[in-house]
Structure formats: C-alpha cells, structure tokens
Amino acid sequence: GAVVSQHPSRVICKSGTSVKIECRSLDFQATTMFWYRQFPKQSLMLMATSNEGSKATYEQGVEKDKFLINHASLTLSTLTVTSAHPEDSSFYICSATPGIYGYTFGSGTRLTVV
Amino acid sequence: EDKVVQSPLSLVVHEGDTVTLNCSYEVTNFRSLLWYKQEKKAPTFLFMLTSSGIEKKSGRLSSILDKKELFSILNITATQTGDSAVYLCAVAEDFGNEKLTFGTGTRLTIIP
C-alpha cells in the first residue's frame, strides 16, 4: 500500500534554533502534500498545502516565514520551523494522496522546544 | 466558515458495550467524509464515505453517511480495550486540492 515516511519522529531543540521535518512518499508520486499541526487534546489543524515545484499555500494565521515549506521533488516535502519557540511545541503530521480518493499520513513528528 | 463537529467530545464505556459516535458537517462543496482512529501517533484510516445511505463495515466497526442531514455515525459493537483512542472525522471538499478539514475528535475510553 501507499506509504508516507516522516522523520524525525521526535525532536527536542533549543529556543531560537531551526528544525527541519521531512515527509517522503515511498511508493508513489505526490504533487501535493499537506502539513498539519496538532496540539495536545486537540484535533489536526491544516497548516499549509505543499505543491511540488511551486510555493506552498498557507492557511490563515500560519506564518509562512516561520514555517518554511519546500517541495522540490515529487516524493519529498520538508517543513522547517525557524527560530522555534516553546509555543511551537506540537505534533506535526504530513499527508499525501496516492490516489484520487486516498489519504495517507506520515507517522508524525513530536517537536519540543526548550 | 466550513465546520466539522463531532459529539460527544469524550465517552467512557465498559468493555462489551456498543458505542455510536457522531459527526456533522457544514462545507461548501462536499466530496467525501472520512473516519480515522488516532492512538498515540498519526491517524489510521477507517472508512471513507461518499454516498448517502450505504453502510460500510469492517469487523465490529461500521459507518454510514446521510448527505441530506449532513452527518455521519461510526458504530463500534462489542467494544474492547484496544478500541480506546481518539476517533476523528474529516471532510474532503471538491476544490481539486484534496485537503481535509478535521473535527474536534471523540476520545473513547473502554473500561475493562
């Protein structure tokens, strides 16, 4: 079946540093990938839509200069949290659609900023 | 604004009970409704519903969609402790960009 690989699964970083999260489609090409954020005991909130070869589309309220998205190939999208602060601590999940109606999620990245 | 609302927010039942989880939605261009189970990590797919009135089943789980009343239910019969999780409902819209709008989730706890 379609697999989306995400890593790292867990990262702890110091406040002010940047963290890169990778999302790869392993056995299919994904022109579009999605990045979600989930705070404790809350649902998944879409942050941005990553488009291969073009700029990402950000949801309202998400700072594009803080959450940099790069989708340079058909199998890889990256999310970089720049100048991370403790309030950025969250669970970040990517997803892609291997087929017209399929949605596959990565395993998620738990980010803790100290 | 598009909304997906789930109820109840949390539910605690005894093993063996049957539960019904609800999801209602208000979206502009509905395409499909999806149910996911989330334990400690990323959500795992349960069902995708596109047509009204057709029940989908997988073991003890089943789900049905009512596009006229804009809601879906997820049933779990003979619950087990392994069913304890957060159940998420999500709606995909027909804008060609395939993004999902998630509900708040229902936290289900099964007591042995």
Give a short overview:
The complex is a heterodimer of chains A (114) and B (112). Chain A has 114 residues and is an all-beta fold.
Detailed description of the structure:
The complex is a heterodimer of chains A (114) and B (112). With 114 residues, chain A is mostly beta strands. Helices cover 0% and strands 51% of the residues of chain A. Chain A has strands spanning 4-7, 10-13, 19-25, 32-38, 45-51, 57-58, 67-73, 76-81, 90-96, 104-105, 109-113. The mean pLDDT of chain A is 91. Chain B is an all-beta fold. Chain B is built from no helices and eleven strands. In chain B, the strands form two sheets. In chain B, strands 2, 4, 5, 9, 10 and 11 form a six-stranded mixed sheet that branches. In chain B, strands 1-3-8-7-6 form a five-stranded antiparallel sheet, with no helix packed on it. In chain B, strand 6 and strand 7 form a beta hairpin. The chains are: A mainly beta (114), B mainly beta (112). Chain A binds chain B through residues 6, 32, 34, 36, 41-46, 49, 57, 93, 95, 97, 101, 103-108, and chain B through 32, 34, 41-45, 48, 50, 88, 90, 92, 97-105, 107.
